[in-house]
């Protein structure tokens, strides 16, 4: 059964690596890369049938009494996400070979990475929502191991704990939401649930189901106000960051919203909760990214903003907006993985990620600078990259998103977010690659070897292909995946750089001009912000964790106090 083999491959590789496969680093990389490549080959063999409308299924009875079977389902949406997980996973494994120091325990690192890959594949292929929950929690556990890989560093341990606490807490809400969803739909099989949207939305449980599911999705995909764990996850090695941001962890929440779109979308409650959360997150993340100085921090907040864009589009609840979301998922995966790899190359060669200590790298690292600039252009939404097309699609959909008669509000806010994205993207490129060479103790760098730069070349070429040949490269997959999202026939698809002069093009051009001007005036604003006290999410998280531990200790002491009367009272109250 190809689906079962596809599911087993990464876990088998993780087990081999965890048990200490012999042969050293090359053997470890070969096992991980081989498993990813084999899975990708199986996926490509299945793609023609899936895109033609024939999903693949597989089922093994597991715990029938609980309605839990090992039930897998590969449809176009699962194909899209599984392709990203395996394809970018393969490139990340190759990149890690050049990035990790020779003294690093490569086997342990790749074992965690393959466990993470297997958990994500499980989410993408699950046809049983209870099975999906198991893989959902496994992504939280495996990401904890990856983020905390450098366990001797306090920031890595802190980032891992924060990610586990936030996404794990959201996972508890999701468990409750999925159980209620199965009860309302009368089945835990996803293929059945997706046909019962009217039944679920007519149920009195619908508001609770939607709220709980959204808590799970929003915490996983770092939506405001649950975003704060993601920047702290940057303590992970850069290959982890590239994988986590582009194709895995944070995309899981977006996948869940897309997967459950036929059964949960279409109501006013969906629109206001999902679209508004995405819109706020998109603006917030872009605004913060403009004033960060660490390369990975800039990219982390840009990811928060880009995830908000995808969530907002899904929240609009229209087939055209779903199409834009699907295409941007592909675009974002390509340029964001390339950008994190680029940041890792700069850090690897210069010894710093502080953008204030960098400059003039284009003369010293010409290939790295070229690739980074092209990836930045995609993130900023500049032609001829695919990011330009999906940004224009987003702006076009914002013009049709009015729900209360204020037709100007969403387009205005979407244009502001696009403007901020141009500004932080331009800063990311110009501050490190162009301008005067920074002075200080930064090492004299050069372009890294092909193990690091090769995967970035592939990703940038894909991002460029999404712009120059979008219908050829992405059209069939986007159309089929959109059909899977909306649960019906997708709208006509016309991916192209030029659609004539229209309002969306004008909004895009305005964002570029104002974004460049905003970058020029960034310094006075940054000085003003430096003098203001800001909300520190890390401090709030630490305080909350300390309070929970203290209250738990107090409760334990109260319960176990040496008093017979108190024990009798507790027994009477509890049971």
Describe the structure.
Strand 1 (56-63) and strand 2 (68-74) form a beta hairpin. The model has no long low-confidence stretch (mean pLDDT 88). The protein contains 27 helices and two strands. A two-stranded antiparallel sheet has the order 1-2. By secondary structure, the protein is an all-alpha fold. The protein has two domains: 1-534, no CATH class; 538-574. The protein has helices at residues 2-18, 24-51, 76-99, 106-125, 129-147, 154-185, 190-193, 197-202, 206-220, 229-232, 238-246, 249-259, 261-264, 268-289, 295-316, 319-350, 361-364, 366-380, 386-398, 409-433, 450-468, 470-473, 475-486, 503-520, 522-530, 537-559, 564-574; strands at residues 56-63, 68-74. The chain starts with a helix and ends with a helix. Helices cover 73% and strands 3% of the residues. The radius of gyration is 24 Å and the shape is globular.
Summarize the structure.
The chain has 575 residues and is mainly alpha-helical. The chain has helices at residues 2-18, 24-51, 76-99, 106-125, 129-147, 154-185, 190-193, 197-202, 206-220, 229-232, 238-246, 249-259, 261-264, 268-289, 295-316, 319-350, 361-364, 366-380, 386-398, 409-433, 450-468, 470-473, 475-486, 503-520, 522-530, 537-559, 564-574, and strands at 56-63, 68-74.
């Amino acid at each position: 059964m190809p689906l079962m083999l596809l599911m087993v491959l990464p876990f088998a590789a993780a087990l081999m690596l965890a048990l200490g496969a012999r042969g050293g680093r090359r053997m470890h990389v070969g096992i991980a890369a081989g498993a990813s490549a084999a899975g990708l080959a199986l996926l490509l063999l299945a793609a023609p049938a899936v895109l033609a409308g024939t999903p693949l299924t597989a089922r093994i009875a597991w715990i029938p009494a609980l309605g839990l079977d090992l039930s897998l389902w590969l449809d176009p949406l699962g194909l899209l996400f599984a392709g990203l997980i395996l394809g970018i996973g393969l490139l990340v494994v190759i990149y890690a070979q050049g990035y990790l120091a020779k003294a690093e325990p490569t086997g342990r690192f790749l074992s965690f990475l393959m466990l993470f890959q297997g958990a994500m594949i499980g989410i993408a292929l699950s046809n049983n929502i209870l099975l999906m929950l198991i893989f959902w929690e496994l992504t939280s556990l495996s990401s904890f191991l990856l983020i905390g890989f450098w366990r001797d560093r306090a920031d890595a341990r802190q980032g891992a704990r924060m990610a586990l606490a936030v996404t794990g807490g959201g996972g508890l809400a999701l468990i409750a939401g999925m159980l209620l969803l199965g009860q309302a739909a009368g089945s835990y099989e996803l293929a059945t649930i997706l046909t019962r949207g009217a039944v679920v939305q007519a149920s009195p449980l619908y508001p609770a189901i939607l709220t709980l599911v959204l808590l799970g999705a929003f915490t996983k995909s770092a939506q405001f106000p649950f975003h704060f764990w993601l920047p702290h996850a940057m303590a992970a090695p850069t290959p982890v960051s590239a994988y986590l941001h582009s194709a895995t962890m944070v995309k899981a929440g977006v996948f869940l919203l897309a997967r459950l779109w036929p059964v949960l979308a279409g109501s006013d409650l969906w629109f206001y909760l999902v679209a508004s959360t995405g819109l706020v997150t998109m603006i917030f993340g872009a605004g913060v990214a403009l004033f960060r100085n660490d390369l990975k921090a800039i990219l982390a907040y840009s990811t928060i903003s880009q995830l908000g864009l995808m969530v907002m589009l899904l929240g609009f609840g229209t087939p055209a907006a779903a199409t834009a979301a699907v295409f941007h998922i592909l675009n974002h995966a390509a340029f964001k993985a390339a950008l994190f790899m680029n940041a890792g190359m700069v850090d690897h060669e210069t010894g710093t990620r502080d953008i204030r200590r960098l400059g003039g790298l284009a003369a010293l690292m010409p290939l790295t600078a070229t690739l980074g600039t092209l990836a930045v252009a995609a993130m900023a939404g500049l032609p001829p990259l695919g990011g330009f097309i999906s940004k224009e699609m987003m702006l076009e959909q914002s013009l049709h998103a009015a729900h209360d008669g204020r037709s100007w509000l969403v387009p205005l806010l979407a244009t502001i977010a696009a403007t901020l994205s141009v500004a932080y993207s331009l800063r990311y490129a110009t501050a490190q690659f162009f301008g005067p060479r920074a002075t200080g103790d930064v090492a004299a760098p050069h372009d890294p070897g092909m193990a690091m730069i090769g995967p970035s070349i592939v990703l940038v070429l894909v991002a460029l292909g999404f712009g120059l040949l979008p219908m050829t490269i992405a059209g069939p997959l986007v159309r089929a995946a959109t059909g899977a999202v909306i649960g019906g026939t997708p709208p006509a698809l016309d991916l192209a750089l030029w659609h004539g002069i229209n309002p969306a093009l004008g909004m895009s051009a305005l964002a570029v001009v104002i974004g460049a001007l905003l970058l020029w005036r960034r310094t006075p604003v940054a000085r003003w912000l430096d003098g203001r006290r800001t909300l520190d999410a890390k401090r709030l998280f630490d305080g909350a964790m300390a309070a929970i531990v203290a209250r738990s200790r107090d409760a334990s002491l109260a319960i176990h106090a040496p008093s017979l009367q108190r024990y009798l009272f507790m027994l009477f109250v509890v049971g």
